[in-house]
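tool_call: predict_structure(chain=1)
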Amino acid sequence: MKFLTIIALLLILNETNYGFSSFINKNKIKNILKKEFDNKIKLISYETVYAPSIVPLPQDFKFVILYDKKEDFYFTIAHDFRGKKKDSREDIIEKIKKSKEEQIKYIDNLKEKAKVFKKYYNKEFFIIYDETYSKNVFITFLDIKDFDNTYAIKEFNKIQNYLKDNQKDIIEIMPKKYTKYFKEQISKNYYSQHEKTDLIKDLYKSKKEEVIYSSKALNSILFRTYFKISYETYEDMEHRVVNSYLIHKDNQMSQARGYTLGAHVENLYKRAQNIDIDLGVKMRELIKDKYFKEFNKELKINFLDSYLNWEKNILNIEVYDFLIDEKKVLKTHYLKYDFLTNQFIEHKD
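tool_result:
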């Protein structure tokens, strides 16, 4: 018991010392920004970084978010303030200059990409860079009613033409009501690595303050998209979509999914010029709502096996569900919904 008490006291002393050092060094950065950068750069956040462990302990560096008032963008530095790698005043100045230069290059690349995209697509959008997958992500907006007419087809054809020449990029389509959160980004056509936004404040009422949002954090809310469009070769699609099911040779249900998805990939390759579409949560909710209004009952189909197709006069979603009955016989529940005619086709084995 005494041993645990001693450990607790040491942790408290360490935190107190850490907090005092943190306070001093935060003021040091403020002083540098004032004297070396003429207060044209503002300190936004000075955050503690903790070691991942059962008892998280503070590390000897801080994650610092800065704002360049003249250039109007946010950027970051990692500030080592204790231990062997402790930053000198000159180190901090150099880190700020280098990070600012890198952010200018980063934003210039986004601006150039946005210019290219605008030649194909002139609706509201902005671009971010997904560091996890090293891909550019264009976020555009459509009203939910646009899925019931040929307007969506025209827009998708423009996107399709862009992706043919820019195969590594991704298009995310979000509900139009979310444009109110990104007016500034839409006007610039890009979203830098760290931005100020009221998005979280409005979506999650428990948060009242404005939030500095990283591109990674922004991606985390894109589950709200209708769907995502990206360019893939036939081999890429077959490997990603089909093979994950076919490898389970002893599983009848998995085999059925594999062959059904294989037919989808084959169809996609012939008709949609290698563009695959991942459905978003809101698209599935839309289908469920329309289904309930049509049949006055809940839709009970597994949306894991679902995909969207389009051609000149087709925009429909296909959903498959696989069930094995008491006699170990595999059965299929299939649903197809055509957005242009607002009709359902439903089939059960």
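agent: The radius of gyration is 26 Å. Proceeding to next step.
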